[in-house]
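Q: Joint fold for the lines below.
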Amino acid sequence: MRNHNLKLLIRNFAIEMVVYSVLLVAYFYLALRFLGEPLKQMYETRMVVYAILALVLIVAQAVMLEALTSMIVRWLGLERLE
Amino acid sequence: MYFPVADVVVNPLLLAAVGFLVGLLGGFFGVGGGFLAGPMMFLVGVPMNFVVGTDLAHMTGKSIVAARRHRVLGHVDVKLGLLMVMGTVPGVEIGARIIERLEGTGVIDEVVGTIYVVILVAIGAFTAWESLRALQLVRTEQMDAQEALAFQGAARRARGLHIPPMISLPGSGVESISLWVILAVSFLTGLLAGVLGVGGGFIRMPMLVYLVGVPTHVAVGTDLFEIVISAGFGTLTHALKGNVDILMALVMHTGAAIGAQIGAVSTRYFAGPRIRLFFSVLPFIGAILTVLRLFGLMVGH
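A: Joint structure:
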């Protein structure tokens, strides 16, 4: 049972690694490039909005990454180790 | 990659790698990892004024992922976490004010640094001693492997204090404990965190285990839950002061999210004493980094 769980764990993580790697590349080459200048302007002119947006962005990314991984694991019919 | 907010070029892969390492430690030990992430971020080229705020921002995201995973595993006591926040926040505030008062003396860095090293070494040494003793008791079959604890005196005494209101913490297996004990422990950890200028996870986790009697896995998960709130608040205040480059935090978080998930799920494969034994190494690393920084300060003087 323990070995079975360990195999699932490794398989699960391998899939999650692929998902996150794709997202990582997307961030590097797309989203961050477009976000950079607007955020810089906001940082210089409207600090309060920037501060709130900073918190919203990091929370949203955390929730989205977690939700996306859960969804893909479910679609692939993999048992989660939880 | 150019980060326009901080106006600096930093390799994003290095940032993600730092995030991964700190996320792994955070997910497994329930610490924010600021004491490691700060120096590492500085080493990869993040300007000093952006280190603390940006680290807090990525810590918020990482802790959400790890705390959510721990919650699913049944390792988060939400009631205890919220009560701890009530004590931690005033503790951090008073600690920060003490530092403000002491700043005029001119030797604040050396004094705080020395206290920090003493506390870190004491926590590391005590946790290592206790966990090794607990593992010994497990080997001689005197205790259950999962939650063996070789030092229960303080938690027993704390639970013996009948100062109303008494509360129960079913999520931590605590039938009855005075609310004041929880508030005192959280205030003390908050005070230390405020004075030392750190998140305080490495102080809070062992305190929850040894003083409140919370199982190690629940202490890890609950500490992460509290970090979500405290680091989120810290992100907002630092961002208002212009100390957060959110783009860097997002890049770091992509690595941290993987590490945090691996760390959180890995706790299932280790018993409490072994987690505490691994944990005991962290304060020593923090102490070495602080000594190096202090040495640098002394050379500077």
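Q: Anything notable?
A: The two ends of chain B are 35 Å apart (CA to CA). Chain B has a mean pLDDT of 81.
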